[in-house]
Each structure stands twice: as structure tokens, then as C-alpha cells.
Amino acid sequence: MCQRLGGCAADAGFGMVEMMAALIVIAIASAASAAFFITSLGGSNGNKTRTTAAYVADEELEQITSLPASDLVFGRTKTAVTALWATAAATRLKISSQDDESSTSDYDSVTTHTPYIPTQTSRTVNGTFFNLYNFIDVCWMDVVAGTCGPNQSPANGDSTTKEYRASVDVYWVSNGGCHAGCDYSTSTLIDPSSDPTFNSDLDIPVISSFTPSSFDTNNTLVDAATPCVVNGVSHPNSGDLVQVVTSSGLDAGATIRVSTGGASAQPTFYAVVGTSEIDFCLQTADTPGNYFVTVLNPDGGHANEPITENGIVTSAAWNSATQALTLTGTGFEPDATVADSGSSSCSTAGCITNNYSSGSFDTAVIPSYTPPTNGANDTITITNPDTTSITYTIYAPKVTSSGLTAYGKLPNNLAIAGSAFQSGMSVSLVSGNCTGSSVAYNSTGSASLSFTGGTVGTKCVFRFINSDGGSTSTFSVTNEPYPPQVSSVSPTFVEVSTTTTLTLVGTGFESGMTATTSGSSCSSATNVSVPGPYPSTSATLNLTSTGSTGSCTITLTNPDGGTTSFTETVTRISISGMTESSKTVRRTTTYTWTVTGTAFSTSGLPTVTLSETASGTTRSLTVSAVTVNSSSQLTFNATPFNTGRANYTVTVTNPSGSQASFTLSNFTVS
Predict the structure, then answer these.
(1) Which conformational region is residue 435 in: left (phi greater than 0), alpha (psi within -120 to 50 degrees), or beta?
(2) Interatomic CA distance for residues 596 and 224, integer angstroms
(3) Mean pLDDT over each residue of the chain, to the nearest integer
(4) Displacement of CA 99 from its chain's centroid (Å)
(5) Beta carbons of 381 and 391 less than 8 angstroms apart
(6) Using CA atoms, how far apart are residues 478 and 559, in angstroms rounded to an integer?
(7) Is the Cβ–Cβ distance between 576 and 546 less than 8 Å?
């Protein structure tokens, strides 16, 4: 092209040869930079993984420092700690040269605890598997040199203070520069003293009140009937309610820990109220002693409150036959002594059995014991060899009811007032011929005494005895005659000038019971009959009435003098009206007629007649289906004979022979 045009200029561009040469140069340079880029990228990933490892280590260390010092080695057994000291991580951290491997503070003697911080754990982050080794060891701070080492008494003679060194070693395998194994470690010192040198930047709760500050052992036993209530939610058998009020420093999410003594806070029960109070249920242990309850903020700031746990007597049982008093509870130590404020006592031998180490409730026995009576009290003291003491006071019950009476020969249930009554108390019959006595506990001041009365005119003497032996003075109940009680009488009335058998229903009817009458409407009550067994619930008698209507009083008297009265109505038969059930009465049709009046017999069927008078002719109509609905109403069926207006006369005659008549005038039959 250039030749045809007469030649080309010098800057006319590259030819094919030059372009190929340039591409070769670029390819050689790119190959060298690719290797550098790959190396650079691998280093970046390695740094990212190391940063992650540092984050994992710091996070684990924060978990450790958030614990109270008393919980740092909780659950870390000697076996687990010794195995941790033998790992390569311990070698990398030079544990043997910087920490005291002989300190028993590095492990927990109780092998069943679940550790708050495990000795070894693992975590996978962004696809990388990290092994974590958690060291919590004791080192001794040289107060002059400011270094923390393995010797409590260093060669320079400086004084030391105990510190915990918490170290976390993170180990992982990388495809990069440390493909044989990479690790990152971090550590800090934790001062277990009440005025810590370290961790001074934490938010420390300031406790202004802590209630209660002491407990009895085995609170689940003591408080089984009194549930712990937190924020309105009841938690039975969960121990006692504890309230912690802070004036400052309580953070959201704060928790509760029980540090020593074997007690346990119920973690699902506590509640943070506002920003100044924590309420929780505390279930204490069986062993008396002192331990701490810790309020723990999420950042590790915490405050401890001491709790005193005392031994307790949970029950006392006195054997009236052997005179031995047995106390049951917790916290009784071997070689303890038992004594009361009176003269009873027991030395070491034979007094304390089933001590705490056996796993059973402890028992203490006073072989010869005289309980207090009639409102007095006696304090019993168990003195342990460590000088701690456990007391139990026996309060004797007292009866304040007076003038007690009962019905002879009959079941009685008397309300007895008093004080210091106990559930499970018993009753003793001291004298008298009452039988089947028992007592039911209602409250500390109320009980129910049940028994069958004795001979009328005599007294029965009783005594209440609590299960711990405290008893009342004797109290007496006078057996009085039981009056017969009449609940119903049949029939409810009698007619004038008749002798009627009355059937009585009630209680307390005795063989030989008599009856008398008063009032002008009756003259006598005879033939009293009481069927056995006695006292009976039924009786019969014959009542003779006079010709006067009114009421008659009948008085019943048992052979023992018990008496009662009831009244019976004396009346004569009468008819006040008669009606027919249909609006239109037709000839030759049977209709139901209703008669109202007084003294219709209910014990025997009255006789009813009906006559029809029309146009001067009187006919007797056929009566059927006589029914006595009550002493004041009866019905019957009858068929009219004539049509038109007629007079209908009804006559009712009782079985006694007394009768009454009534005429329904100008009754129209269509």
C-alpha cells in the first residue's frame, strides 16, 4: 500500500512483527506478577485467620474474667488440670516456669461438678477449626518486683499475694505459612482479694440490702408447704425467696451465683426487677456453714454477700412408753451433745445417730425426757464439737375451753380452743368411760375432739399430747342426757275426738321413753313404742284428742332425763269449695272435680259421695278415682246426669267417721 502511494512516513505505526514482540514481553511480565499476587493473597488469608484466632482467644478470656474469683476453678478436677499441664499448649506458655503447679487451688475436689470453664474446648469460625486450651493457675505476685511467679516465697525474700493467671491458647492448622500448626495465646491476672488490684474498670454492683442473710439447712424440707414466689409466679419446693437491692452498678442481664457451701440458686426462677433489684429462689444445702451469694454483671463486675447456713431440727417425736425424745434434722455432727433447759441431757455416747456423712437425716436422742405441760416450753440445744449449736423449742399446748359438756352414750364432736396445738397431736383418755376418742388439728388454737359419751352424770377426763411430747393439763367433759330430737311427725294433724297413731322420726329415742300432753285439744298420749337398737331414730305413740280444735303439746322424756316437746294440730274436717276442671260440662261425660277444705285424711282414703239435684229430683252420681293430694285438697271423677242448672252436693267422710259436706249451687250442665 505504501509503495503504491509512493512510500510511508516514519511514524506510520507498528508492523506485525513489532506487535508480536510486544505481546511476548507482556506475557513474560504477567507470569512473574501472578506468582506475587497468589503469594500476597495467601498472606492476607493467613492474617485474617490469625485475627479470628485472636478474637476467639479474647472472647474466651472475657468469659473467664466475668466469673467471681471463687468460681474460677469450679468443676476443674485434679485429673483434668494435670492432663492440661501435660499438653503442648502448656509448653508453649511455659506454665511450669511462671505458675504454681503444686497449688490445690487449681482444681476442684468435687468430681461431680460441671465446670464453668472447661480445660479444653473447640470452636469453628469461618470454616477454620480452633482448639482452645484454658489455663487458670495460681501465681504469686512479688509486691516489690511486680512480677507474678510460681513461688509463694521467692529467694529475694519479698512478700507475695495470691493471684490467678488466666491464659488461653488457641491452636489451628493452616494451609499457609504455619501448615504444621499455628497458635495464638493471651493471658491476664485476676486478683481474688476483696479489694482487687486488677479488673478495676468493671461495673461493680453496690448492694444496699440483702434479705434474708441466713438460712436453715435443707430448705426444701422446711419450706415445702410455702412456695417461693417471684414476680407473682409460685415455685413450690424451690427454697426461700431472696431479695437483693442495689443502689448502683446493677446492669441489665445480671445473674446470681452461689459460690460455695454446696447450695444452688434456681437459675430459671430469678428475675431482675427494674435496674435496682434481683429476686430469686435459693435452695440451700444440707451442710451448715458459710458461703457467698454473688451478683454478677455481664462484664464480670460482681459483689458478694455472705450467707450463714444453720443446722435445723425439722421434727421431734416423743415416745410415751420409753420416755425417749428423738430430734430429726440436719447439721448434727458426730460427738455432739444434747441438753435441754430442764434437767434432761445426753452425753456423746448414743445421742447422735445417722450423721451427715451417712446421707440420711441426722437424729439426736434424749433417752429419758420429761416434756413441758400446759403452755410451758423447753429449749433443747445440740452443741457440735465446732461450737456451733442448733436449738429446738418444745411448746406445750394449753386448753382454754371450759364448761365442756357432751351427750352420754352418743357420738360427740366438740370444738376445743387453746394454744400451741400441733398437727399430728393425739388425745389420751385419763379417766371416765367415754370410748373411741380422737382429735383433729384445725389450727394452733383450735382442735376437734370426737368420742362416744359415757354414762350420763359422769365426767370423762382427757389430755392432748403433741408429737414432740408437749401436753396440756387434763380437762374434763361432763356427760349430760341427750334430749330426743323430733324431725318429722306423721300425720301432721289429728281430728277432734279421735285416737290417732303418730309416727315420729328423729334421734335419741330410748327404750322406756314416755309421753305426756298439755292443752285442751288432747287428753293423752299412750302406747309409746321405740324400736331398738338404742338410741333409735323412730318411735310411735297414740294421741287421743278432745272435741276442741287447736294445738296439742306432746312432751317426750327418756329414762335418763333427756326431754323434748313438739306440737300437733287438732282440727275437724271441713269443705270450703268445689270446682270442675272443664269450662263446659256436658251430660254423660266424666269430669274431674276438685274439693278444697281441711283435715282430709292422708293416712287412710276418705269416702266421697256426690248427689245431683235438678227440677226437684235428687240423684246419687257414681264417684271414682278419689285422690287425696293433701290434707286440704282431694279430687275425684263423676259424670253429670241432667242438663241445665243443677245443685251438686259433695260429702267427704274420713276413716275416723267424721265428715263434711258442701253444695255447689246452680251449676250449669250443657
Answers:
(1) beta
(2) 69
(3) 82
(4) 52
(5) yes
(6) 18
(7) no
Angle, CA 218 vertex, CA 106 and CA 368 arms, to 5° = 120
Write out the three cell numbers for 181: 500448626
8-state DSSP, 100 = B
Q: Provide the residue type at 13 as one letter.
A: G
pLDDT for residue 405: 94
End-to-end CA distance of the chain: 150
Nearest residue to 258 via CA among 287, 232, 290: 290
Q: How far is CA 556 from CA 312, 482, 493, 513, 528, in A?
A: 61, 12, 18, 7, 9
Beta strands, E only, 493-587: 493-495, 499-509, 514-518, 522-529, 536-545, 550-557, 563-571, 574-580
| DSSP secondary structure string for all residues of 502-524 | EEEEEEEE-TT-EEEEESTTEEE
Instruction: Round to whole Å and give the CA distance between 280 and 238.
Output: 10
Which of 663, 408, 411, 433 is CA-nearest to residue 560?
A: 408
**Which pTM does this prediction carry?**
0.46
Which residues touch 102 (CB under 8 Å, ≥6 apart)? Answer: none
> Who contacts 81 (Cβ-Cβ below 8 Å, separation ≥6)?
106, 107, 119
Q: Which strands make up the sheet holding 289-296, listed edge to edge?
A: 214-216, 302-310, 289-296, 255-258
Which grid cell sits at 307? 450467707
Q: Which residue has the cell 488466666?
A: 166
Q: Tell me if 527 sits within 8 A of 558, measured CB to CB.
A: no
- Collapsing DSSP to helix, strand or coil, 56 comes out as helix
Rounded distance between C-alpha atoms, residue 305 and residue 215, angstroms = 13
Encode 177-193: b = buried (16+ Cβ within 10 Å), e = exposed: eeeeebbbbebbbbbbe
The SS3 of residue 244 is: strand
Confidence band of 131 (pLDDT split at 50, 70, 90): very high
What dihedral angle (degrees, nearest 10) is formed by the CA atoms of 284, 288, 294, 295? 50
Element spanning 113, H or E: none
- The answer on pLDDT for 24 being more than 90 is no
Round to whole Å and give the CA distance between 528 and 540.
Answer: 6
The larger pLDDT score, comparing residue 132 to residue 254, is at: 132
Q: What is the spatial distance between Cα 405 and Cα 449, in angstroms, rounded to a whole number? A: 12
Whether 314 and 330 have beta carbons less than 8 Å apart is answered as yes
Residue 328's CB is within 10 A of a number of other CB atoms, namely: 19
Q: Is the pLDDT of residue 104 over 80?
A: yes
- Residue (of 396, 394, 393) closest to 374 by Cα position: 396
From the list 239, 224, 290, the residue with the least C-alpha distance to 262 is: 290
Higher pLDDT, 178 or 355: 178
| DSSP one-letter string for 622-668 | PEEEEEEEETTEEEEEE---S-EEEEEEEEEE-TTS-EEEEEEEEEE
Q: Compute CA distances 555 → 24, 488, 525, 536, 541, whole Å.
A: 144, 15, 9, 17, 12
Tell me which of 583 and 594 has the higher pLDDT: 594
CA atoms of 351 and 326, how far apart (whole Å): 9
The DSSP code sequence of 199-212 is -TTS---EEEEEE-
**Maximal CA-CA distance, the chain:** 176
Residue bearing the bigger pLDDT, 191 or 174: 191
pLDDT classification of 579: cutoffs 50, 70, 90: confident
CA neighbor of 285 nearest in space, from 223, 219, 332, 236: 219
Within 13 A of 144's CA, how many CA atoms are on the CB side? 7
Sign of CA dihedral 103, 105, 110, 112: negative
Amino acid at 413: N
DSSP annotation of 374 reads: T
Across-strand partners of 627?
Answer: 635
| Residue 595 CB coordination number (10 Å) | 27
Q: What is the CA radius of gyration of the chain?
A: 52
